[in-house]
Amino acid sequence: MPELPEVETTVRGLRPVLEGQRLTAVEPRRPDLRRPIPPDLRRRLTGATVTTLSRRAKYGLIETDRGDTLIFHLGMSGRWRIDPEDIGKHDHLLIDTAAGRRLALADPRRFGSLDLMATAAVGAFPPFVALGPEPLGPHFTAAHLARAFEGRAAPVKPLLLDQRIVAGLGNIYVCEALHMARIDPARPAGTIPRARLAKLVEAVRTVLEAAIAAGGSTLRDYARPDGELGYFSKQFLVYGREGEACACGAPVLRRVDGGRSTFYCARCQPPKRRVA
DNA sequence: CCGACAACCTGACGGC
DNA sequence: TGCCGTCAGGTTGTCG
Fold first, then answer.
1. Predicted structure pTM score
2. Structure confidence at residue A216 as a pLDDT band (50, 70, 90)
3. Which of A1, A21, A138, A180 is the most exposed place for a label (fewest CB within 10 A)?
4. Enzyme catalytic residues of A
5. Is the minimum distance from the CB of A4 to strand C below 7 Å?
6. HEC profile for chain A?
7. C strand bases under 7 Å from protein CB
8. Which nucleotide is nearest to A77 (CA to C1')?
């Protein structure tokens, strides 16, 4: 599930369980996910009190009163379970709070990560150093995209997945936003006029906000033992809908580039021809 | 600098 | 029922 809206939803779901809580037990259950879990994680977090939860790009940040910040990434299959009834083989980190709540970080594919940074040094966390602006923040603008795309012949779609250009977009929401902005995913990024980039910025914001809102509405389900996430997949206009009808009636197409599926509508997102 | 591609790892699903 | 191939929301490194 995890693109920006899912991480945002996760952080919001964790907040009431963790914020202001002293951590009575913090137990990694294996030494590594995508990379090693810091060996001193248990020692530095046990007994600390959580002060703040936040999100940067697709990372969640859990800050404590001891000056440390736990940074988690959910990879492809990660998710936090609240008060799980049992512990499975994919629960790689357990956290108990003074209020008697328990969190389990499950991640079957283990593409996620856990890191611990001094809060004052979070800006130097390597994955954060080159990160682009937050798509929901004030610095994600048509001017920013114009600068980032200038002279680039590469298709716009993979550039939107580049976290250095904009931080937090993944395959689903890039497909959705390009459809909403009526831009051909294969269009050379540098050829998109400024006005169209403004539409794209707006589309990205609209799609992400709608997804967060839908995620928020399923937050109640979050703590449910079965934990099944219906989420907002029903709202997708093109993603995962190959062969179905687009809202315009034309079929949704799928193409693979760079190993990632691209879903789009050739009628709503027509290729630009050089000559009219 | 750029783009294509593999690798990391497990589970779900469709076809036979 | 079961085996096999294919695919999956991300990131990172290599190769040409």
1. 0.94
2. low
3. A138
4. 2-3, 58, 260
5. no
6. CCCHHHHHHHHHHHHHHHCCCEEEEEEECCCECCCECCCCHHHHHCCCEEEEEEEECCEEEEEECCCEEEEEECCCCCEEEECCCCCCCCEEEEEEECCCCEEEEECCCCCCEEEEEEHHHHHHCHHHHCCCCCCCCCCCCHHHHHHHHCCCCCEHHHHHHCCCCCCCCCHHHHHHHHHHCCCCCCCEHHHCCHHHHHHHHHHHHHHHHHHHHHHHHCHHHHCCCCCCCCCCHHHCCCCCCCCCECCCCCEEEEEEECCEEEEEECCCCCCCCCCC
7. 7-12
8. C9
